[in-house]
Structures are given as structure tokens and as C-alpha cells.
Amino acid sequence: MTIILYDWNIPPICEVEGCTANAQDTGHRRKNGSIVWRRPKWVKEGGGYCCGTHHTNSWHPYRKYRKNYCENEDGRLGFSCNYPITEDGQLTVHHEDGDATNNEEPNLTTYCRNCHYVADKQGETHLTIGRVNLRKQGIKVA
To answer: d(Cα 56, Cα 54) in Å, to the nearest integer?
Structure first.
């Protein structure tokens, strides 16, 4: 009988559909020195791991739908975005209808910060009631 031991220092792949990035290292180590890989609550339900892009602030339900590129590459805002994405913080999730509580995938678009600003101006979603005001009214938002 052969016993196969898993090498916990080899990163598993992010289990968010369409993502091929390695899972995020939590910075923690087991007693045997092996790496503890990121397993956020919304992925744990399926038993999986996720990369840093999909984990950052993963308590926001919409973050699991965020892509790793600006979706305006196709020119949907009237110009094609060719801004180089080098840092996770350059990408944001835009709510197409301006409703921060509507976290359904069809309502969410990933933009770089520049394109998100343009999308808000074009769609006038910047004029909708914001998260701060929703919270002041006692409405729970992500």
C-alpha cells in the first residue's frame, strides 16, 4: 500500500470559477511548518481555496465575482481601457444599477479605478444614494 502525502507548500488553485491563480498564503504555518492557504467563508462552503484577488475584503458578497482585469478592454464605455493592472487595489466592482445592495452577478462589472469613475459619471450612478447614506438609514449593505 502506497501512502501519498500532500505537499502543503505547493499552492492549490483558486476555486472561483474562471480563476487560475494560486491560492493566497495566509502567512500562518502549521506546527510542521507547512503553509496555511486562504479559505474564506464563502469558498469554505464548497471546501475550496481562493487567491488574494478574490479574498481581499471577501466579506463583500460581490467580491467573488470580481475579475482580474478591467472589463472596459472591450470599449463598452466608449474607449478601450489599456491601463496596466499591476496591483489588486487598482480594480473595483461597479454596480450597474447603482444599488449597492444588488450583488447579483449580472449587475456587477469589474473596472479599473479610472473606468469606474467614468462608468459612474456616464450612468449617473454617482447620484444614487450611497452606502454611507444607506447605513445611516439602518439598511445593511456589504
So the answer is: 6
